[in-house]
Structures are given as structure tokens and as C-alpha cells.
Amino acid sequence: MAGVQSSTGSQKRLRTNEAGESADAAEVQCVNEYRGYEFSENINSIERVSISDVTPEDFFATYVCTRTPVVLTGFLQDPEFKAPAKWSNERLIELAGDTNVTVERRGDINDKFGKGIAVEMPFHELVTLIAAGDEMHYLTTQEVAAEEDGRPEIMAPFMKQLQRDFPLRPKLMGHLIPQNINMWMGNNKHGSSSGLHHDHHDNLYILLRGKKRFRLYSPGDADKMYVRGRIVHVHPNGLINYAGKETTPYGAEPAAEREALAAIERTAAERELAEAEKAVEDGEPGAEDRLEAAENRLEKAMFGVLQADASDGEGDDEDFENEAFHFEESEAEGDDESDVGELDDLALDPEDEEAATQAAKPATKRDATQAEITYPVSFSKVDTFRLRGSEQAQRELHEEFPKFKEAKVAFCDLAAGEMLFLPASWFHEVESFGSPDGNGHLALNYWYQPPDQLKPGNFTAPYSSPFWQRDWDQRFEANKD
């Protein structure tokens, strides 16, 4: 596998306007600090390893820390991962058939996904259509509901119905925190494209049916991708930020994170106070000292909430979770892509997803079950299919996007029974092909909050902030009781 690991970061000064094109020096510049793996040749391949030869610790050190894509042959080894053996069409319908899903419907068999409309239908209807050979519909990321405290849920309702057949946190991924879990489903004999884009989270992509072909570029070539938004920062771990959507390297909005951590501590302090008061009532030894400590902790926690609110200027404690997740209304694969292209592993960032979600909302006189698809800021304007055209077509593409031909590319094919790990903000285009038996293509993917503690010794603590781990613990505390 041809590649190079940068130890100091490329420190490229990227100049882009809102369309992702060259801009005057007067405009905001972006420093590309990416320090991960980059290709050394113009055309490259991706390493392939057997899942049985990789421990979680090895995987973290070799691929996660270095931000290196890898194809894993074989499925997850977790005993809970029963999807490959159990997910027949009949079982999918049995478990989740009556739950509504949103799918993209193309207007013509030759249209690319990403230019159609979003249609709502029962999951069993989609499964039946695909089994009958339909190539017009495609299941991508779904809108997820918000929990009572404002957190976006980990998966869509129909995925919850299927959760008994896959682990919530695969052992392979160590201590990375899941952000979203999705299913991708369609049927294309001649291939359909997702469009060239990047996601905002680390991606474990598991192919259960069909075939996928990936075109990949590293975040080090972000300035050559001609994205639709204006890039302002590429973090050392590769995470790309856009104007007005700046985050920490691990994907949290800084001011909102301060509020979130303060609110989490307040909740924990309130719980400890209640338990200490109960201990006093029960006459437990040392209960009075425990109560005093709990009262002091809560006082400090409340002060922390006030400080966080003040530092943010406004401080709306009710909405802290939505902002800390960089999430507005829904997070689909979509920028991490619920409304674009084959959005096969397209992923919109929670906020890019917001743009897509808003665009997908029905217009006043439009059927409420249909919505047009739009592209998020993380999608490239380069149509790579033009590279398969005539010499003139290729020349015109390179004239329109001159820096694109300088980018170093890799290709990899993924077959059923294989997985692809793709670090956050690696650019990729996915072509999907149905399986020979006519059951289409089917994939499951996990998105993870991007880690920023990228040394092997940080296996148990891959984030520089406790936010994501505390949030996860609090989110699922009810399930532990």
C-alpha cells in the first residue's frame, strides 16, 4: 500500500470561497493541519486484512491513530452480530416491516441518486420493491428523533426494531463513541453513485449484500476537492470544518460543549445530593459528611452552569445538547447524507444534515410525503463520471477544476462479507451494485465521534475531552438501572 504519514501536518494555506473555489487573499484562509496518512502515488490501493488477525488494540494503533483506511475481510466477531445470518427479507419485514422509512426515488433509471425526491413508505414496501428488481428507490440515512433532553437518538425507529441482530458498540472499535447507526439498501444492476463527498465522523461500513466500489482521497487534498461550502479548518485528525460551523477536533461546538459538560455535572451533583439525603435519613455512617460534600459539589456545579452560560453570551440551557452534538433537526448519513446521492455512506454532518433536512421539507403545495434532494456543503462539485468520457470531456473537467487532477486517489472494491474503515473527512465516492441473486445491495454502518488522542497508548481514552464519554454514560444510564 503506497502512502506516507505526515508528522508535522501539511500546514497548507487553503483559499476558498463559498463554492469551494479559489478566493482572494482578502478572504478568510484555512490552514490544513492534517497529520494522518496520505497517499504517496497518483493512484493507490487500500490495504486488506483479515478481521481474525486484528485485535481492537491493534486496530486502534494501526488504523485509527494513523487515520488510515483499511478493508477488513470478514464480519464483526461480536456474538451479538447476527445480521449476516439472519437478515433475510422475511426477517427484516418481520422485525421492522410496519415502520415508516424515507427513501430516495429517482425520476428515471439513468438518473443519479441525489437528484430525485424523498418518499415515505413502510419498510416492508421498500424490501418488497427491491426483491422484485426495483432500481428506482434507495434507502439512506434516516431522520432521528431527539430524546427528552435534546440529544439526537443513535438510530432511526426502524433500526431500533432490528437492533437485536447487531451490537451497539462493536468490540473492534474499542472506546470510540458511536454517533449514529444506519442502513443502506437499494438495487442497481449497472451501478449507482453517491457523488464525491466527505463525512464528519469515523465510519465502519459493513457490506451484507451486493458490491461497492470506493474512490478515496485524503483530507490532505481538501483544497483540491472543490466542495460546495467554504472550508475554514482541517484538524490534525482530518476533521473538516466549514465557515460558521467550527468545532473541536472531536466534533463538538466549543461553547455548547462547555454548557453540556456543566449541565452533565449539575445532573450528577443533583443525583448525588438526593442519594446523600437518603443516606442521612437511613442513618448511614458518614452520611452527614457525604451530604455536606454533595451540597458543595452542587453549589460548584451550579456556578459552572452560570459560567458556561455567560461565556456563550446567551446560554440557553434547554438547547445545550443539540448544539453540543452540532446537531439541529436531524442527523442522517447524509453529511453523515440523508438527502443526497446514493448517499450510500454519505454522511451529512449534523448541521449539514440540517441544511439537507430543511431543503427536504415539503413545500406548501407539495405532497407531504415527497421532498426534493439537495447537496450539503461537504459534497464536491466534481462529477467524476466525466473522467470516463471522451478526451475532450476529461480536458474540460480539468480546465474547470484544475487542482483536482493533482489529488492522489485510491480505489477499492468491497464485497459482501467485507468491511471498510474510513476515518472522518476522507473524501469518497461510492458506486453500488446489486447482488447476483437479485436481492440488491444492503449495508450497515456505524459513525463514530472522531478521536483526537491519536497515540496507541490512548486506546482507552481516545478523546481529549470527557464530553462524549460522559454524554454516552448519561444517555444510557437509564438502561443500566
UniProtKB/TrEMBL annotation:
Annotated coiled-coil segments of the chain: none
Pfam family, one: Cupin_8
InterPro entries in alphabetical order: Cupin_8, JmjC_dom
UniProt biased composition (Polar residues): 1-11
JmjC domain location: 155-465
Top-level taxon of the source organism: Eukaryota
Region (Disordered): 1-22
Residue ranges of the TM segments: none
Name of the protein this chain belongs to: JmjC domain-containing protein
